[in-house]
Specification:
Blueprint (H helix, E strand, L loop, with lengths): L5 H14 L3 E12 L2 E12 L3 E5 L6 H9 L6 E6 L2 E3 L4 H6 L2 E4 L11 H5 L6 E2 L6 E2 L1 H14 L16 H14 L4 E5 L7 H16 L3 E6 L2 H7 L2 E6 L2 E7 L5 H9 L1 H15 L4 H10 L1
Parallel strand pairs: 3-10, 3-11, 6-9, 9-10
Antiparallel strand pairs: 1-2, 1-4, 4-5, 7-8, 11-12
Helix pairs in contact: 5-6, 6-7, 10-11
Amino acid sequence: MTEPTLASEVEVAEKSAVRDGNVLVQVRGIGKRFGSIIALSDVSTSVRAGEVTCVLGDNGAGKSTFIKILAGSHMHTDGSLLIDGQERRLSSPREALDAGIATVYQDLAVVPLMPVWRNFFLGSEATRGKGPLKRLDVPFMKKTAKVELAAMGIDLRDVDQPIGTLSGGERQCVAIARAVYFGARVLILDEPTAALGVKQSGVVLKYIAKARDRGLGVVFITHNPHHAHPVGDRFVLLRRGRSLGDFAKAELPMDELVSMMAGGAELQALSHELERSMGADSAVVHDLKEDLK
């Protein structure tokens, strides 16, 4: 019998890590081209159980393309996507859901006038009885919605209230609890705090941490480093469709994350340009230089 090579030993170790529930999703040099247009290029990272992977970038950085690849809305054209160690090409959101990948989009797929429990089970309603006697199991859905929301720390007085009466942060949290209940192992959150105030953003961040503590792999898409850093375990920074790197939290202090997001070189150039046009004594120039320190 021949001894295993170093490469095969690495493969065995990687498969063992997957079996242990560590790496749920991995992308290696992933990219997406639309004809001659390159929307995303050479992005690599891993999503692990019990960790939050933050994907940061400004508008047009490639965040939407990246999550659509993971969510099954776009098939990648370059690189590889592995789920549980097996290379996959997701052709639809249903295929992604079947693989345990759920996406909560910023606009939320809810019906404002329907009660919370109906929205919780929307499209996956529980029934009882058979044939002509088949009907919605309303007591089960109400009880389950209340129990699952309570498990995420959401204490609603009445699950019969229209979901439109909840705050933006609470609606986000209902969507997160729903994804967890229906078997998501990887939860993708598309800018969940973008349209929220400070207090409601804090509420959503708390539930992101709760989802992580329940063993989910969370992909948190945001343009706000101040929201990402407190809950993130890994950080992928995108700019103009390309990755600036994949960093563990210990490798990327808050000030460096902010600087990379802001584009330190661009801000330095802007500072010099403003100094030439407005003068070194300008309050705007002074404040910008202070921010760059």
